Amino acid sequence: MVKRRVHVAAAAIVSADQKKVLIARRPSNVDQGGLWEFPGGKLAPYETGLEGLKRELHEELGVEIIRAQPLIRIHHEYPDKHILLDVWQVHEFAGEPFGREGQAVRWVPMEELVKYPFPAANLPILRAVMLPTEYLITSEEADEARFDAFLERALKEDNIRLVQLRAKALDEAAYIERAERALRMCREHGASLLLNGEPGLLEKVDADGIHLTSERLMQLDRRPISEQKWLSASTHDQIQLSKAAVLGCDFVTLSPLRTTPSHPEVAPIGWHDFQQLVERAGMPVFALGGMTRFDANHARAVGAQGIASIRDFWK
Ligand SMILES: Nc1nc2c([nH]c(=O)n2[C@H]2C[C@H](O)[C@@H](COP(=O)(O)OP(=O)(O)OP(=O)(O)O)O2)c(=O)[nH]1
Ligand SMILES: [Mg+2]
């Protein structure tokens, strides 16, 4: 049997304060009925993703899109069809959304999204909705007072909401001490902190997740931490991306996009290959390697969640 290929455009409509997202319940008599979804539907053959989405949101919710940005593209095999979910984040719209087809519609706080039953293809979309566009990786900083001042500035002034504590030069005791302080600062600003290191570190510091090196990623054969924590990993190619998917990583960094002073000998991936790798990654991907905030929009346009950087946020 040749499976049908279906291209679906869907919207993560985010409230003005960025704290809530709009979801709808599929009627019980349709495919995936009774489950919650991001409003949207199948594209007509002549439509682009955004054109189809505009039509669908008008038909289903009575709203007009004013500003939207690509969020994530997910290819998913259902038993009867291959589906491409082309998901857009809608930042601005006109009208008051309501279920024009009689469906239930609800604004849900981000952290409660995971409580709603969605179709199987939706898990990475939930991750993407919850994640910001910028991922700060902390710099190797010998001085603790300077470390605190830099992190505080990034949280306060750059509004960073996702941080990876990378400190290869510290022994475990010093790392834990720094992590405890970083965690307090992150909590104060509503940011999430991932520890770069062994999964067991979470038993010592109750941070929000673990970031695996690509080497560690390749050695593991199952997800090493609970679903309640974030699991991210460093990847550099297709093999590592596939491994991250098998392991159930929530998101990854893919690098180096550009040549960087820290790794001058490594060939850069470049935007073209990056886009192709991201298209099939099946999870949010942050572009890493010579990235600045000015690259974030382009990264989004080629399918990434956003950018990860040490240098751009650490000054
Ligand atoms: N809209 C939407 N569809 C999803 C999501 N997740 C997911 O697996 N799907 C699947 C379910 C369906 O097989 C397909 C969407 O088709 P649909 O039933 O919404 O299509 P439509 O609005 O054009 O409706 P119809 O005219 O075909 O009845 O994608 C999601 O979050 N939003
Ligand atoms: Mg629909």
UniProtKB/TrEMBL annotation:
Enzyme category, top tier: hydrolase
Co-factor requirement: Mg(2+)
GO molecular function terms listed in the Swiss-Prot or TrEMBL record: hydrolase activity
Catalytic reaction list: 8-oxo-dGTP + H2O = 8-oxo-dGMP + diphosphate + H(+); 8-oxo-GTP + H2O = 8-oxo-GMP + diphosphate + H(+)
Protein name as annotated: 8-oxo-dGTP diphosphatase
The UniProt record lists the keyword Magnesium: yes
Domain called Nudix hydrolase: residue spans: 3-131
Highest taxon above the source species: Bacteria
Record key words, sorted: DNA damage, DNA repair, DNA replication, Hydrolase, Magnesium, Metal-binding, Mutator protein
The protein's Enzyme Commission number: 3.6.1.55
Cross-referenced PROSITE patterns: NUDIX, NUDIX_BOX
Recorded family membership: Belongs to the Nudix hydrolase family.
